[in-house]
Every structure is written in C-alpha cells, then in structure tokens.
Amino acid sequence: MSPSLPSDKPPRIFPGSDWLFRWCYVKTPRRVLPGFGLTLGFTVFYLCLIVLIPLSSVFLKTFSMTWPAFWEVVASEQAIASYRLSFGASFIAALINTFFGGIVAWVLVRYEFPGKRIMDALVDLPFALPTAVAGITLTALYSTNGWIGKYFTELGIKVSYTPFGVVVALTFIGLPFVVRTVQPVLEDLEKELEEAAASLGANAWQTFTRVVFPAVMPALVTGFALSFARATGEFGSVIFIAGNQPMISEITPLLIYIKLEAYNYAGATAIAVVMLVASFALLLAINLLQAWTRARTGKK
Predict the structure, then answer these.
(1) What angle do CA 212, 217, 222 make, to 5 degrees?
(2) Under DSSP, is residue 159 helix (H, G, I), strand (E, B) or coil?
(3) Handedness of CA 156, 162, 167, 171 (dihedral sign)
C-alpha cells in the first residue's frame, strides 16, 4: 500500500467546515502592520498635527485682518521687493542646479575615477551642514577679500551683500535635491538602449536628445521643483551673505521675521500666506508639467 501524499489543505475538524477554512485563510489575509482603519487614522492624525493645524493657524490669524490692512501689508513696496528677490533668486538657483546637478549625477553614475566616493559623499554635505555655518562660510569665501570673492572684485563684481550672493547661497543648498533625484534614474537606465540607437546610426547628440534626455526629464523636473521649494523657504544660509538691505537684498522669510520681532503677528502671517499660496501654485504647475512629461514618455 503506497503512503498517502501530504495535502496543503488542513484536515476537516468536523463535516461542513470548509466555509470556516475559507473565512480564516482566504477572506482575511495576513498583514504585518495593523489594518487599514488604524493606519489611516494615524496618518490623518499625524498630518493634521504636523501640517494642517499649523497652516490653518496661519490663515486664521490672517483672516482677522481687514482686506485694506491685508493689502497694505502684502502689497507694500518692501514686500514686493522681497517677493521678487526670493522667488526670482530661487528660480535662477533651481535652473542652475538642474543643469549642473544633472551633469554631476551623470559623472557619478557613468564614470569611474579616483575619489569618486568622496565626491559622492560631498554632494550630501549641504544636507548635514547647519545653515548658519553654510552662510558664514559662503560670506567669508565671497567677501571682497575672500578666497573667491577677491577675484570677482577684480572683475568689478561684488558677491556678498548683494542679490548675487543670495543666488549663490540658494544654489549651494539646492544642489543635492537634483543630484539625488536624477542619479537613481540614470542608474536604472539601460545602456542597451543607447547601444541600439548607436547601431541604428544615431550620433551622440541624437542618442542623448532622443533616448537619454526623455528618460531623465521627469527626474530633472522633480529635482527642479524640490530645489525651488527648498530655496524659497531658506533663511539661515542667506541672511549672512545677503546683507539684508531693504529693497535690495532682503528676502521674504527675513521680512516675516522682522515683523514677528515687532510683534506684528498679523502682518507676518499675511506675508506668509502670500508665500504659501505662490509656492503651492508654482509647485502645482510643475507637477502638472511632470505628469504631462511622463505621459509623453509613456511612464507611469
């Protein structure tokens, strides 16, 4: 008599118990974390505590102002000059980081050279470096008698205490966002696609514009958005090198801080609301552009 083969289905405890087996083993899948209800509740509570409640308090404090008082604060000549500097310098810095950050990511992924690990680690330095330390360092380097600033001075270009210095500081703190966003995409990009394009007669420029660039463009747009968003709210590394001259090198976060020091909480929150709405609108436009780019390239 041949031995019976083992069965994956457990033996019946009592006749007609198949429904119990299906309910226990099929209807209720095993999960490592608790169920959807508990995790969703924790997620909503955490987001409300960290994000929604603080932002709501800003709007509620602003709504206590009358419309003429609100407009007088947010449309003042000093406030408009700070908007122009903050958003304009952030945009320029994000563009610079998108171009050079893409090149840095390409070099780190596609080439092997001595000191590559050190260079790769240096990219993350702005993440770990305190912003005040970064601001003091940049001011010392780019001052009129600094190691780098003295060469600009000989050319008649002043960096420290000018809007140019603000762009330099924002470029410094935004570079890692582009590099770390583009680098994984380049690592996953199959070199066979480039080889296939070359075998079909495409030159280096055609291969880059039709194969490589469409694949990394969504990552570049994401890196630009992250760099821009980080730059608009930067404070510590900018105030040292900017000089903080009203109408010239005064950024919007510093203007908010000045109003808080003067106990003008409503005025500070009014300017903060303008920055928040403008940043949200710009990021929404960038996300829509990113979604359109992914649809064009056929990526999800």
Answers:
(1) 145
(2) coil
(3) positive
